[in-house]
Design brief:
It is a single chain. The protein is an alpha/beta fold and 216 residues long. Strands 1, 2, 3, 4, 5, 6, 7, 8 and 9 form a nine-stranded mixed beta sheet that branches. The protein is globular. The two termini are 31 Å apart.
Length: 216
């Protein structure tokens, strides 16, 4: 699980999708954690879903970055924002990250290594939530074990995908034709997951906290 060094341009591109709505307090920390990845072949797609606070202003500081695409739309909800970003993605792999999340610097290097070594479809990783006002810190490693997930649907029913799609790294080809359901404010991850699960064959679950997020 060693992280790939910054010179990873010859490795598969990873598209990181970040929907953003009224997250002026968190969005910079989120994006900075993505820019700090040890895996460099990333495209970061941020969709401002009609924010009414200073989110758009905070995002403008990243206009000069070649690997960041900023998209604005009228407020339509998180599903519409993710769908728009997914349509614009070019990476071989997709990761959905919430805009109030901070991710471990070796997250994508680890995920690419695991998928490329055996050609697996996806990687699940653990996460930890924090209440608003707290500083997110990566939690203790509960286990060094990397668990193979050979029957994704059964694994989901037994364990759940804690953190939803924002705790999954997946091959983009498997998402073809899928969209997050519009008009649903809660449970859109679950709906999307159940459409995706029959397409997945094998993956990994790394029992290490690679993502922290505010519980807001």
């Amino acid at each position: 699980m060693n992280g790939i060094l910054k010179d990873s341009s010859s490795f598969p591109k990873v598209s990181v999708i970040v929907p953003a709505y009224n997250v002026e307090r968190y969005i910079v920390e989120c994006i900075e954690s993505l820019l700090s990845q040890t895996y460099s072949n990333l495209e970061i797609i941020v969709v401002d879903d009609g924010s009414t606070d200073a989110t758009a202003s905070e995002l403008r500081r990243y206009q000069r970055f070649d690997n960041i695409t900023l998209i604005s739309q009228r407020n339509q909800g998180v599903s519409a924002a993710r769908n728009k970003a997914l349509a614009a993605a070019h990476g071989e792999f997709i990761a959905f990250i919430d805009s109030d999340d901070v991710v471990h610097p070796e997250l994508f290097a680890t995920c690419v290594n695991l998928c490329e070594n055996k050609g697996y479809d996806f990687v699940l990783y653990d996460h930890e939530e924090f209440s608003s006002g707290q500083i997110p810190r990566f939690g203790q490693i509960r286990s060094d074990r990397i668990e193979s997930v050979d029957e994704p649907l059964s694994y989901y029913l037994d364990n759940g995908f804690k953190g939803g799609m924002s705790a999954m790294f997946v091959r983009r080809e498997l998402l073809k034709g899928l969209e997050f359901p519009l008009g649903i404010s809660k449970g859109e991850d679950m709906c999307f997951s159940f459409s995706l699960l029959p397409r997945l064959k094998k993956g990994w679950h790394i029992q290490k906290n690679y993502r922290t997020g505010y519980n807001i």
